[in-house]
Amino acid sequence: MARVINFSAGPATLPLPVLEYAQKEFLDHEGTGMSLVEHSHRGAAYAEVHAETKSLLRELLDIPETHEVLFMQGGATAQFALVPLNLRAPGESADYVMTGAWSDKALAEAKITGDAREAGTGKVDGKYTRVPKQAELDLDAKAAYVHYTSNNTIMGTQFPYVPDTANAPLVADMSSDILCRPLDVSKFGLIYAGAQKNLGPAGITVLILRKDLAERSPDTLNKIFRYSTILNGDSLQNTIPTFPVYMVRNVLRWVRDQGGAAAMEKRNLEKAGCIYDMIDGATDFFRCPVERDSRSIMNPVFRLPTEELEAKMIAEAADAGMVGIKGHRSVGGIRTSIYNAMEPSDVQKFVDFAKAFAKANG
C-alpha cells in the first residue's frame, strides 16, 4: 500500500505512528481482550483513556486549575449555537470579530437567540484577506463575551496575537490551530476545537472552559446543552464517542513525544516558511492573497495565473500522490493544510513539485 500525502483541511492527516498503534491494538485494547470501541464509557478501561487525554491536554497547554477540559459532540458548529445560549444572559449582547466563513456562521447563530454585534473585521474590498489589529477592534465594555476564530482554514489567515478584551471573557474557536504553538490559556474564558484538524478524527469537540463561566448556563436551557452539565458530569453525562477520544489521546502522546507545543511551533513555522518562500520567490506565477502578517501557518493558500492552471496543478499533484490541495469552493485557488501531523519532508516534496510545475507552465 502506498499512502498519499494528505493536504486536506479536515478531516486531516494524522501521525502515521498513531494510526499504526491504533491498528495494532484495535482488536485487543491494552490486554483487555476486546476493542476500545466495545468498552463501556463508564468502565475502567475507558476511564483511564479519558483521564489521560485530559491530563495530556493540561500538560501540553499548561492549563491552569481555573479551567476544565470538556468533551462534547457536534463540532464547532454546535458551539456556534451553544456559546451564546450558555454565556449570554437575556438582554446582554456579545461581540464577534469577523475574519471569515466560520466567524460569519458563529455570529449568525448568535443573532438567532439574542443580541450580537460585529466588533472588528478582516474584510478588505469585500474579501477576508487579513485579521484586524488590536487597535482596530471596537469592543463593547459590557459585552457578555468576545468571540473570535483564531485560524481561518478557508481564507488562510491566522491571528498572530491573542486579543485583549479587558474584563469580557474571550471565547476562541481554535478548531484548526489548537496546539500548533504554546498558548496562555489563562487569557481565555473558553476555547473550543473540533478534533478533526489538529487533534484527531472527527466526532469529538474539545472545550477548555473557565469553570466559573459554567455558572452562567441557564436553567431554561435543556440540561444536555448546558456547560454546567458537561462540567459536573466529567463529560460522561451521556455515551461519549469513546474511540475519537482514544485517538485524541494517542495524538497527544505523539505531540508530547515530539517535544510538546514549542516543538510543534518550530515544526510548523518551518513548514509554512517553506511554502511561503516558494510563493514569494515566484510572484510572476504564484500569488498569496493574504497580507503577510496575517498568513496562516496551518493553511497556506495561493493562486496561480489562471483557474485552468490551478485545475491542472490539482490533477497533476494527485497523480504524484499529493491530494487535498484544492481551495475551498467559496474562494478557489490552492490550499495546503499543514497541521501538526504533516511531515516537513512531505511539505518539501510538494514545494519541489510546485516549483517544477511553475517552471513547466510559467
Overall description:
The protein is α/β, with parallel strands linked by helices and 362 residues long. The chain folds into 2 domains: 17-257, 3-Layer(aba) Sandwich (Aspartate Aminotransferase, domain 2); 260-361, Alpha-Beta Complex (Aspartate Aminotransferase, domain 1). It is 35% helix and 15% strand. The protein has helices at 16-24, 44-61, 75-87, 101-113, 227-232, 242-258, 260-280, 307-319, 344-361; strands at residues 5-6, 67-72, 93-98, 115-121, 123-124, 127-128, 146-149, 151-152, 157-158, 170-173, 190-194, 205-210, 301-302, 322-323, 334-335. The strands form 5 sheets. A 7-stranded mixed β-sheet has the order 2-12-11-10-7-3-4, with helices on both faces. A two-stranded parallel sheet has the order 1-14. Strand 5 and strand 6 (127-128) form a beta hairpin. Helix 3 packs parallel to helix 4 and helix 7 (260-280) runs parallel beside helix 9. The radius of gyration is 21 Å and the shape is globular. The two termini are 34 Å apart. The model has no long low-confidence stretch (mean pLDDT 98).
